Amino acid sequence: MLEYPCLTPDPNLAAAIYLPYYAGIDGLKYLFGPEVNSSFRHGLDLFHYLAHVDSPSIWGKNLGHDHFLVMARPAWDFSQPLSNDPPIFGTSFLELPEFYNVTALTFEARAYPWQEQGIPYPTSFHPPNLGFFESWLNRVRKSRRSTLMLFAGGGGISANPNVRRSIRLECENVTGMNPNGTGYSKFCDFVDCSNGICEHDPIKFMKPMLQSTFCLQPPGDTPTRRSTFDGILAGCIPVFFEEISAKKQYGWHLPEEEYEDFSVFIPKEDVVFKGVRILDVLMNIPRGEIRRKREKVLEMMGRVMYRKHGSSLGLRSKKDAFDIAIEGTLQRIKSRTQEIIASHRLE
Length: 347
Prior knowledge:
Its main location: Golgi. Keywords: Glycosyltransferase, Golgi apparatus, Signal-anchor, Transferase, Transmembrane. This protein has helices spanning 23-26, 28-31, 44-54, 56-62, 130-142, 163-174, 203-210, 227-233, 259-262, 268-273, 278-283, 287-304, 313-316, 321-346, and strands spanning 17-18, 67-71, 103-106, 116-118, 147-153, 186-192, 212-217, 237-240, 264-265. The chain is built from 14 helices and 9 strands. It is of the alpha/beta class. It is globular, with a radius of gyration of 22 Å.
């Protein structure tokens, strides 16, 4: 934010006000720490500071409609109903009436978002300059895709029917199949990232992604995955199984009307209960269409990566995930504040 070119120290001149509040870190004591039974209080200290201590007139001008913040966890972790007794996992930050008007940028929004907007997960790729980014782009474009499909993740070991289990079983079943004549050396690759073993070792999954045509992105504990953005940065065409995994999340960065151009959608119910084989669906996609989808993925790459802090002017001339998030936030706040002004005139 401090590198953003249009900052002003005067809140009266500002179109929007950024709250440098680390909601995910401050929420840890309510999620896992000593105040787990007081999770309904998460955010009340912040509200008191904004509305009564810092500069009450700034908050009172639009009652928070012109404020925004980043919440580095899924919105579900901040959406525990205030009435829950005993509390379930999560805090009630987004359920507090005091913050209904604030725009929250989260890695995963709820299915009925009013306050929040989904933004891409940060990956391990933060280029410092335009040359570095273009060099990576060329590497991705020229990478030999010897594997048809890849799943990098955990889960799927339960006996209960679920899409991750179906993917793992199908991957095991097709491993012994002969791919001769298909253009691939193998049909399926599985990178086991259980227990967080891939979190700080991106080579474990990025190298296989660079070698794969399709990256399977099934939902897990929640619908979205960081792997979606790792895959895009590797030029790997995403295969989704729920619309809430991306299409209904990241409209600012990945427009809904373009999903058919860069991804594949297979309903998870078809895979789990109707016997649809992912292999058959993907093998039936013409090579020309695959090339077009991959080119679109490469086109999307700049929109979902966060360039490095202090990056070159050349790279900053291209919009990255940060720029698009701020642009969307400003437009959203402008629309809401204009509605407030119009309603006051009617009164």
